[in-house]
């Protein structure tokens, strides 16, 4: 389904987990800032609407979308966050630079999702025209920032639940008699 057949701001509140205790990082590119500010507004307001306290939302700015990867990496390395949203707007110009920026940021964010434990949400418009970006940052097609905020809440919840289930599994094993040795602990077998 293409964006033109879906309003990016619409979501079913009944499918959104409780987000009150989650902490979110938002990294915003300054290129095309009228668009990225619109995307940020959509994401920020949606997090507030889902009862995330403003004090649990950390915002950093970076120069352009290519720097979103480094900004997200340092955000999740240094801040206590349950998910990171990266916000950018890349618009086709006269050269192939568009292709390289889009590929770089896409692959970089994918790599962070593979290599780290904190979900990084891809709120980067890759449009042919400014009008397409306007339409997707609060215009006729809604706001991709809203979509990204809901995705961030859902992924933070999956991260939390998967960690809990892992802990429960461990507890189950320990309570069932399995032992968990600290690395280097000598195993003493009693007669
Ligand atoms: N043309 C756009 C850029 N270009 C800048 C790069 O993202 C990067 O900041 C620069 O190459 C220095 O590393 N960035 C956007 O976010 N949007 C564009 O349309
Ligand atoms: C995505 C870009 O870097 C692009 O907008 C820059 O424009 P140009 O390709 O005309 O240099």
Q: Any idea of the CATH topology?
A: Rossmann fold
Number of domains: 1
Which class do the helix and strand fractions yield? Answer: alpha/beta
Low-confidence stretches: none
Under CATH, the homologous superfamily reads Lumazine/riboflavin synthase
Percent of residues in helices: 40-55%
SS summary, helix count: 5
Mean pLDDT metric:
92
Q: List the ions, cofactors and other small molecules found in this model.
A: ligand LW54GNZ2, the ligand CC(=O)[C@@H](O)COP(=O)(O)O
Main sheet makeup? 4 strands, parallel
Q: What's the CATH class label?
A: Alpha Beta
What is the 3D shape?
A: elongated
Keywords: Riboflavin biosynthesis, Transferase
Function: Catalyzes the formation of 6,7-dimethyl-8-ribityllumazine by condensation of 5-amino-6-(D-ribitylamino)uracil with 3,4-dihydroxy-2-butanone 4-phosphate. This is the penultimate step in the biosynthesis of riboflavin.
Organism: Flavobacterium psychrolimnae
Family: Belongs to the DMRL synthase family.
